[in-house]
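A further point concerns the way the authors explain their paired sequence and structure data. Each protein is reduced to its one-letter sequence and a matching series of backbone shape codes. An entry of this sort, consisting of the sequence and the corresponding backbone structure tokens, reads as follows:
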Amino acid sequence: MGEHIQERIAKNNFTFREANEQIRAKADEYEAPLDRVPFLCECPTPDCTEIVRLTLAEYGEIRADPTHFLTVPGHEQADEPVGRVVDRRDGYVVVGKDLDRGSDER
């Protein structure tokens, strides 16, 4: 796999991950009365605007492993160069990725 493709995938994943962390922080801050909070699909497709609705507990479970990312069903194929499906749930897929991000990984 080309280094450029891996870099693009990593950049997109971490951009969406950062946005989702901000969504989670605001949901916590405002004690959102939602059963399911809308999070962004963390696939590497640059123009993806799909939403995944998760409970804060579900998101926290995914986020507990920094190599796990959430995608809408069907978007996991875009991660194949660097990822593998680790779990399929109702309405979303968890993809494990081995991305060399060094100190950028959170």
About this structure: The mean pLDDT is 83. The chain has two helices and five strands. The first strand starts at residue 37 and ends at 40.
